[in-house]
Specification:
The chain has a domain of 227 residues: Jelly Rolls. 9% of the residues lie in helices and 28% in strands. It is built from five helices and 24 strands. The strands form five sheets. Strands 4, 7, 8, 10, 15, 16, 17 and 21 form an eight-stranded antiparallel beta sheet that branches. It has an eight-stranded mixed beta sheet with strand order 5-6-9-20-11-12-13-14, with no helix packed on it. The two termini are 32 Å apart. The N terminus and C terminus are likely disordered. The structure holds 2-acetamido-2-deoxy-beta-D-glucopyranose (6 copies). One 2-acetamido-2-deoxy-beta-D-glucopyranose (NAG) binds next to loops. Its EC number is 3.2.-.-. This is Crh-like protein. It catalyses: Random endo-hydrolysis of N-acetyl-beta-D-glucosaminide (1->4)-beta-linkages in chitin and chitodextrins. Belongs to the glycosyl hydrolase 16 family. CRH1 subfamily.
Length: 447
């Protein structure tokens, strides 16, 4: 369903605002060369994780992706989690990039979703190109509330575990190839003991020829690459390119989402649900483990640090392992000039004084970002954005989360955009169409 979400976001994006959109063959211009995961053009963080090489100005606009690293993340604290307004691509200094509001709780990380926000997303800084990835988690409960543990490539190859908050005995499995919507790929494992009340171990074992999904050590689904041949596309519709691990909680049941998505999510989110505690819905991730497999035999390798694509077919044989640098010098830099800007240059958000600058953090501000979700998110006091120009963070308080007494940003893969940034500068900030819609909605809630 996350796959469907990208389409949804893309279709909503151009409606109201002239943020530069990309996707479906429409490439970004040279001065904002990177096409974000959400189909908007920018620089800086737009060129990092999620950057879509095919719809960017050129394949090289997207920054090389840090290679897989085997590790277990215990989430005993939030030290490895860095907001997307601060991450410039150094995976040795951060494990996860966040949007929204992760919280530490009793040796686990809570992904929260307060009223008026679009939840929380954690994306791994390292990519995985085949590996065994496990997560021990309990889901959020409630209509319209979706918890996800997925692998998502810049190619939009995708392997999912998803949990709808009204089906507490089920886990849905799914996969997508290059973001092509195929409603026949979904699976539904039932008979689980309450996935909200109980932690379960979910595992995706992703190999070049098979994917298995397991729950508590028991295989619940197997997919063979051989069974995915698509003669039209002349390739296997099988996830085959490097993916980030994404953990998220998002509102499938927002009235601004498509009817199909709302129904799938079990109805509209209720912002006064008993499932909200301390003013927010939450999913709890206790541990994530990543065991990398060796690169496939025949992989084009000239190094050991980063993945790049050398062809826009985005199939397994177009991935190359290089020693290319993964770190931008500033939020003004791109894969085309990684040293552009100086280190003190900040994340630019629209709505700030620097209105002519290209967007630099997807979802942080109206413009492109807003479209889906991923916005800056930390709490007011730590000045989340790398700069004073960021109108994104903190402003969430103005959105409705204020009423909950909980300070946080919005943003996540959820799809809409950050309910965040409304605050005092709404005029300047209201740029993305979906963003605007969400803001309006939130405004109503607040009033
Ligand atoms: C999964 O199965 C359960 C139990 O049969 C059912 O209630 C639920 O609607 C199913 N969900 C989907 C998405 O098919
Ligand atoms: C096969 O690939 C074509 C072209 O990408 C796509 O339109 C179609 O939906 C795919 N079919 C399936 C079953 O995935
Ligand atoms: C890519 O996948 C094909 C099957 O479609 C396989 O034969 C080939 O070995 C793979 N190459 C790499 C580098 O993974
Ligand atoms: C490996 O990558 C290089 C550089 O992009 C390219 O020139 C070469 O053709 C690739 N080799 C294979 C076997 O794909
Ligand atoms: C990259 O950016 C730096 C700093 O802005 C600039 O000095 C340099 O000329 C740029 N390089 C290229 C190749 O454009
Ligand atoms: C907000 O950030 C400050 C500084 O990082 C921290 O001390 C405080 O606990 C945070 N508050 C919340 C609610 O996360």
């Amino acid at each position: 369903m996350a796959g469907r979400f990208w389409l949804l976001a893309a279709s909503l994006a151009p409606a109201a605002y002239a943020a530069v959109s990309c996707g479906g063959g429409t490439q970004c211009p040279e001065d904002a060369p990177c096409c974000s995961q959400y189909g908007q053009c920018g620089v800086g963080a737009y060129c990092l994780g999620g950057c879509d090489p095919v719809n960017s100005f050129s394949l090289e606009a997207c920054v090389p992706a840090p290679v897989c690293q085997s590790q277990t993340y215990k989430f005993d604290n939030l030290d490895g989690i860095v907001p997307n307004t601060k991450y410039l691509g150094d995976a040795s200094k951060a494990d996860w990039v966040s949007s929204g509001q992760p919280l530490e709780y009793d040796g686990s990380v809570l992904l929260t979703m307060a009223e008026g926000t679009v939840g929380t997303l954690l994306a791994s800084t390292h990519y995985v190109w085949y590996g065994k990835v496990g997560a021990r988690l309990s889901t959020a409960a409630g209509a319209g509330v979706v918890t996800a543990f997925i692998l998502l490539g810049d190619s939009k190859d995708e392997i999912d575990f998803e949990f709808v908050g009204v089906e507490l005995e089920s886990a849905q499995t799914n996969f997508y190839s290059q973001g092509v919507t195929d409603y026949h790929n979904g699976g539904n494992t039932t008979g689980l003991t309450d996935v909200h009340a109980n932690m379960h171990d979910y595992e995706i074992d992703w190999q070049p020829d098979t994917i298995t999904w397991s729950i508590d050590g028991k295989v619940v689904r197997t997919l063979n690459r051989e069974d995915t041949w698509n003669a039209t596309a002349n390739r296997y519709s099988y996830p085959q390119t490097p993916c980030r691990v994404q953990l998220s909680l998002w509102p499938g049941g927002l009235s601004t989402n498509g009817e199909g998505t709302i129904q799938w999510a079990g109805g509209l989110v209720q912002w006064n649900s008993p499932y909200m505690e301390n003013g927010y819905y939450y999913a709890t991730f206790d541990e994530v483990s990543i065991q990398c497999y060796n690169p496939p035999s025949g992989a084009n390798s000239s190094g050991s640090k980063s993945y790049v694509y050398n062809n826009d077919a985005m199939t397994n044989n177009t991935v190359e392992i290089t020693n290319d640098n993964t770190i931008l010098k500033s939020f003004m830099a791109t894969g085309l000039n990684m040293s552009a800007g100086d280190a003190s240059a900040s994340a630019s958000a629209s709505g700030s004084a620097k209105t002519n600058n290209p967007e630099s953090v997807p979802g942080l501000s109206g413009g492109g970002t807003g479209n889906n979700g991923q916005r800056g998110g930390d709490n007011n006091s730590d000045g989340s954005s790398a700069s004073g120009t960021d109108s994104g963070s903190g402003s969430a308080t103005a959105t409705g989360s204020a009423s909950t007494g909980f300070v946080q940003g919005g943003g996540s893969n959820g799809g809409s955009n950050g309910a965040g940034q409304i605050g005092g500068n709404s005029e300047a900030v209201l740029r993305g169409s979906l963003f605007a819609v969400v803001v309006a909605l939130v405004g109503l809630c607040v009033l």
